[in-house]
Amino acid sequence: MSAVQDCLFCKISAGVIPADVVLESDLAIAFRDIDPKAPTHVLVIPKKHFADVTDLMSNDPDLASELLTLATKVAEHEGLATGYRIVTNNGEDSGQSVAHVHFHVLGGRSLSWPPG
Ligand code: 5GP
Ligand code: ZN
Q1: Each residue of 53-103: pLDDT tens digit?
Q2: Cα(97) to centroid(ligand 2), Å
Q3: Contact at 8 Å (CB) between 21 and 9?
Q4: How far is the CA of 49 from the centre of ligand 1 (A)?
Q5: Hey, whose CA ends up nearest to atom 17 of ligand 1?
Q6: How many Å lie between the centroid of ligand 1 and the Cα of residue 35?
Q7: Which atom, in ligand 1's list, is nearest to the CA of 20?
Q8: Residues 54 and 91: beta-carbon distance below 8 Å
Q9: Is the pTM for the entire model greater than 0.90?
Q10: Most buried among 4, 10, 27, 59, using CB within 10 Å?
Q11: Is 103 in the pocket of ligand 1 (CB under 6 A)?
Q12: C-alpha angle with apex 49: 36 to 42, nearest 5 degrees?
């Protein structure tokens, strides 16, 4: 296991901490957010650890395509035909609280814009 010790999402991707998994690919996993902000709120993460989007794009940009592909599959799986939002918080000022890159897939209601 190439998990970073004490990283929550590395533990989820390794199955050490349980999660409600929606979809999975060879390199990525999608699971429901424990504190949903919309009727559908799924997190898409790479199985390999990267701290944030900056880290991901510096080291494995092709993996970003895989993550966005899985995010669109989540939207289809969840029936978000009228629209959805993909969000990623990047670093302290954004409010990123888990330092393992993740895309939020939000939908199932009308979403306000701009976010706070
Ligand atoms: P961030 O604030 O870093 O953009 O997003 C982290 C997200 O992870 C939050 O929406 C939070 O609710 C979610 N989260 C935190 N701990 C857990 C957990 O143990 N399991 C799941 N499924 N989601 C979590
Ligand atoms: Zn990690």
Answers
A1: 999 999 999 999 999 999 999 999 999 999 999 999 999 999 999 999 999
A2: 12
A3: no
A4: 15
A5: 34
A6: 7
A7: 22
A8: yes
A9: yes
A10: 10
A11: no
A12: 20
Q: Which two structure tokens, joined as six digits, stand for 44?
A: 């898409």
Closest residue by Cα to residue 88 from 58, 59, 55, 62: 55
Q: Is the CB of 96 under 6 A from ligand 1?
A: yes
List the chain domain ranges.
Answer: 8-107
Residue 32 pairs with which residues in a beta bridge? 42
Number of the ligand closest to the Cα of 7: 2
Q: Whose CA is nearest to atom 19 of ligand 1?
A: 34
104 is catalytic: no
**Burial of 66 from C-beta contacts in 10 A (0-12 / 13-18 / 19+):** middle
Matching residue, tokens 């009727």: 39
Residues 3-25 pLDDT 10s: 788 999 999 999 999 999 999 99
Establish whether residue 8 lines the binding site of ligand 1, counting it when its CB lies within 6 angstroms of any ligand atom.
Answer: yes
